[in-house]
Amino acid sequence: DIQMTQSPASLSASLEEIVTITCQASQDIGNWLSWYQQKPGKSPQLLIYGATSLADGVPSRFSGSRSGTQYSLKISRLQVEDIGIYYCLQAYSAPPTFGAGTKLELK
Amino acid sequence: EVQLVESGGGLVKPGSSLKLSCVASGFTFSSYGMHWIRQAPKKGLEWIALIYYDSSNKYYADSVKGRFTISRDNSKNTLYLEMNSLRSEDTAMYYCAKGAGSPDYWGQGVMVTVSS
């Protein structure tokens, strides 16, 4: 199975700060990487698919990038509503595998 | 508007069976693969099963293989997860999600608690 190593596990940042979360794939997954945001008590919401494509309705301060087998989610100017847990997901091969999650809090 | 509504959860004893349903609306259900994904309390997301749009292929996580069965009825726009031989470690919120690649819509989830 493909392992997704996500870091950091938790992150405390200030409003308007730039935030970056990364996922390292254990093997090549091409662009089959998506990012999700989960707020407390809610189901996950798709932010980024295809490693770099912004999902419908997602603010443009969110962006995704890829360098080899390392994938990054960047929030350009952190807002209060961005607080939550972020997960990456690889869908290159079955079984799809999630990263362990990054808990993003306000400093 | 895409909607996915799960049902069928509850409190059951170890070794019991349960069948979850997910009714879809707002899109052509028969054209999309569908996932079941679960989340144990205070834990991360765990993918557990995928079914192609036409039921031609099904995939399972090792943790549920042989105990859980994913199926669908395209005439009823409904996805199912039949769960047998339930264990305490199956306690989780169960989500259905649309899209065989990167699931783009998720239901609100249904809670399954396995406890004696």
Structure summary:
The complex is a heterodimer of chains A (107) and B (116). Chain A is mainly β.
Fold topology:
The complex is a heterodimer of chains A (107) and B (116).
Chain A: E1 4-7, E2 10-13, E3 19-25, E4 33-38, E5 45-49, E6 53-54, E7 62-67, E8 70-75, E9 84-90, E10 97-98, E11 102-106
Parallel strand pairs in A: 2-11
Antiparallel strand pairs in A: 1-3, 3-8, 4-5, 4-9, 5-6, 7-8, 9-10, 9-11
Chain B: E1 3-7, E2 10-12, E3 18-25, E4 34-39, E5 45-51, E6 58-60, E7 68-73, E8 78-83, E9 92-98, E10 105-106, E11 110-114
Parallel strand pairs in B: 2-11
Antiparallel strand pairs in B: 1-3, 3-8, 4-5, 4-9, 5-6, 7-8, 9-10, 9-11
How is this structure best described in words?
The complex is a heterodimer of chains A (107) and B (116). Chain A has no helices and eleven strands. In chain A, the strands form two sheets. In chain A, strands 2, 4, 5, 6, 9, 10 and 11 form a seven-stranded mixed sheet that branches. Chain A has a four-stranded antiparallel sheet with strand order 1-3-8-7, with no helix packed on it. In chain A, strand 4 and strand 5 form a beta hairpin. Chain B contains no helices and eleven strands. In chain B, strand 4 and strand 5 form a beta hairpin.
Query: What is the β-strand count of chain A?
Result: 11
Relative helix content of chain B: under 10%
Low-confidence stretches of chain B: none
Name the beta content range of chain A. over 45%
Compute the CA-based radius of gyration of chain A. 13 Å
Strand portion of chain B, in percent? over 45%
Radius of gyration of chain B: 13 Å
Uncertain regions spanning at least 5 consecutive residues of chain A: none
Per DSSP E runs of 2 or more residues, the count of β-strands of chain B stands at 11
Order of helices and strands of chain A: EEEEEEEEEEE
| Amino-to-carboxy terminus distance of chain A | 36 Å
- If you average the pLDDT of chain A, what whole number results? 97
Protein chain pair with the most extensive contact, residues per chain:
A-B, 22 and 21 residues
Which percent range fits the helix content of chain A? under 10%
Individual helix count of chain A = 0
